[in-house]
Amino acid sequence: MKYIQRILSAKLEESIKHNRIIIILGSRQVGKTTLMKMLQDSFPKNCLQFYFNLEDIKQLDICQNIETLKSHLKNKGADIEKKQVFIAIDEFQYIKNATKLLKTIYDLYPLVKVVVSGSSSLEIQKHLKESLAGRKRVYALYSLSFEEYIRFRSEHLYLEYEKLKLIKDEMLLIEPNNKGYFKEYLTYGGYPKIALIKDRTEKIEELQDIYNSYIQKDIKSLLKGEHISAFNNLVKILASQIGNLVNTFELSNTLQIDRRQTSKYLDLLEETFIIKLLKPFHSNKRTEISKMPKLYFLDSGIVNYGIGNFSNIEERKNLGSYVENFIFNELIRYKPIFYNIYFWRTKAGTEIDFILEGNNEFIPIEVKWQNTKTPYIPKNFLSFFENHRNVKRAVVITKHHYAEIKEKGVLIYFIPAILFNKFVKKLSQNEK
Question: pTM for the whole thing?
Answer without folding.
Answer: 0.92
